[in-house]
Design goal:
Length: 162
Amino acid sequence: MTAHEDYARERARLLLGCYRTIGANDLPNYVMGLTIVLTLFSEPVIAEATSPQTGIQTRLTWPPNPAELRAFCEQIAQRQDHIAHQDLPPEFEPKPFSRHYKEPNSGAPSEADRARVAAALARFKGAIKPVEQPPKQWRSPTDAELLAHYGRRPLTEPIPFD
C-alpha cells in the first residue's frame, strides 16, 4: 500500500467518524470503496473533501456512497484547478491559511499570525490571577488561645458529676 493510499484510507475513516451511525452492510468493503475513490484525487482535494470543517459531511446527513463522494471531489478538483490557472495580478498576496490559493509555506503560520497569537497569549497571561496559597495545616489550639477566646467559667457554678 502506498503512502497516498494509506492517507486516503485514513481520511475515509475520518469522514465516516463524523457520522453518528453508518448503515453499511459490509463496513470494511464500504471503507475500501471510499478509499479507492479518494485515491483518484490529489491530497489537497482529499483533505478538503474529508475535513470536518469543509468536507462532504457538512452537506450530507448520511454517509456518502462512493458516487456522491466522487462527484463532490470532482467539484473541488475543478474549483482548485480553476483557481490555480487564474491570471492574478503580480502584486496579489493571498491571505494567510487561505484554502483557495497556494502559499509558499502552506504548513507554516505566517508572521502576522505568529504576532497575533503572541499578543493574545501575552494578554491571557496578564489576565491570569495568581493562585492563592493553600491554608496552613490545621493545628489544635493551645490552652492560652482557648482561654483568650472562651474565657474562664465562673467559679460559682458547680461542676456536675453524676
